[in-house]
Every structure is written in structure tokens, then in C-alpha cells.
Amino acid sequence: MSSSKTQLTATLKTEIRGFTGRLIFDNQARKNALTLEMWQALPSAVAELVSNKDVRVIVLSGTQAGPFSAGADISEFEETRSNAEKAAHYDAINVAAFKAVKHCRLPTLAEIRGHCLGGGLGLALACDLRIADDTARFAVPAGRLGLAYPAEAVSDIVAAVGSMAAKRLLFTAEVFGAAQAQSLGILSEVTNGDGLADLTEKICAQIAANAPLTLQAGKLAINALQPGAEKGLMDAAHAAAAQCFNSADFSEGRAAFKEKRSPDFKGI
């Protein structure tokens, strides 16, 4: 099993502890807003964690005790997003980052404290699971800036909360708290600030104890069933399910059940 390590890519950090890989947004001067360089680095950072054979779940978060992310770094917009042509280039980079998280074969969890706004909320919505403490604050602030989000990002908002609630969030740009986010379906669980790290650890341990190939097949199946799913995703889900039945882990699961012990899954 891998020992703890930290790698810095611009202000995007990756960290591996046991079976959990972490992707950490580190731009503390701007509430962990993502620079263009961070957006560009994100797909390769996800791929790095996925390629590590020990990692079974990936957690996205801000720096320790810091906010999740205030979204895209607006201070760069004069250079990176000042007209439609530049915005289209920037949006393509954003969408690639969202897709890297959304279609990552491993389960992903957003651990949210403080600000989770705009593009930060987009990354959280790209995750499979989302939990927060009671300091979390959410918003879709495009209307206050006069910009538009790429349709692919808006589709994740609609998938999470439904079309009418998505319109309200976009139309009003209102800031709302963790309790409302949970009621809208954005969050599965809310805890106090002291309990968030423990809740993350508990969920990650539960995930890591299960058969990795089964989790991957389940994620593919759920994604394939979503409206507008990419072509070929259902075939991939069927193939992943078949792989489970031919795996050593399926044999181990059956043996552990008969022997009344906890299984030791290897992901093979």
C-alpha cells in the first residue's frame, strides 16, 4: 500500500493515503478559486490518482479547514474570458475538467466546507457523492457576472436538482446554505464542522472495503442510464458487469461469505 505523499501541480495538489486519493484545490488567497492553469492540470491529476493501483476512492476538497472552492479565478477573466472566442476556449478546458471527474472510473466524493460557487459547484456536481459541513455556502453566480456557463456544466445542475430548481438558482444567483443544498438533492449528508473529516473517512473506508470492479461497473451503469449519456456507455457498463463475474474478487467474495469473514478484494 502506498505511503502518504503530496505532489504539487501549479496550485492543484494530489495526495494518497491508504486507499484514498485526494485532489486538493490550493489557492488560499482567493478562497481556493481555480486558475486556468489549475483547470488545465485537473484531468491529468485525476488520471494520476486513477492509475495508482492502491487508490479506490477519490476525494475532492479545498485545503485543510479551508473552503471547497469559490469557482473560477475571476481575476484572470480580463485575459482568459474577455470575449466569446476566449470564453469558448476557456469553456472547453472547464468541460474537460468536469468530464475527467464525472467519467473517472473510481468513486468520487466532494468534501465541502465554506464557499462552493460557480465552477467549484460544477466540480462538486461532477462527483458521485457530496457531503458538507454546516459552513458550506453554494451559488450559481453567473447572472452577477454577465457570463454564461457551458451547457455541459448546466446539465449537471439540472441532473442534481431538476430543471425548475436549476432555473431558480441560475435566475436568482442566490447564495444558499447546506440545509437547502441537501433538500435540493445536491448533498447526501450534512454534519457540523468537527464531524466532516470523520464522515469522509467513514464513507471512504466503506467504499474501499468493497469490490473495486463492482463499484466501477455500478458507476458505469448509473451514468449510462442518465439522460444524454454518451454513446457507447451502456456497452461499457455491460462489459464491466461481465468482468465482475470473471474476476478473482467474485471468487473471493463467495469464499468469504461461506467462511463468514470479511473479503479481501484486490480489484482483479
TrEMBL record:
Q: Output the Gene Ontology terms for molecular function.
A: catalytic activity
Per the record, the GO terms for biological process are: isoprenoid catabolic process
Which InterPro entries does the entry link to?
A: ClpP/crotonase-like_dom_sf, Enoyl-CoA_hyd/isom_CS, Enoyl-CoA_hydra/iso, Enoyl-CoA_hydra_C, Enoyl-CoA_Hydratase/Isomerase
The protein's superkingdom reads Bacteria
SUPFAM superfamilies registered for this protein in UniProt = ClpP/crotonase
Query: What family classification does the UniProt entry report for this protein?
Result: Belongs to the enoyl-CoA hydratase/isomerase family.
Question: What is this protein's name?
Answer: Enoyl-CoA hydratase/carnithine racemase
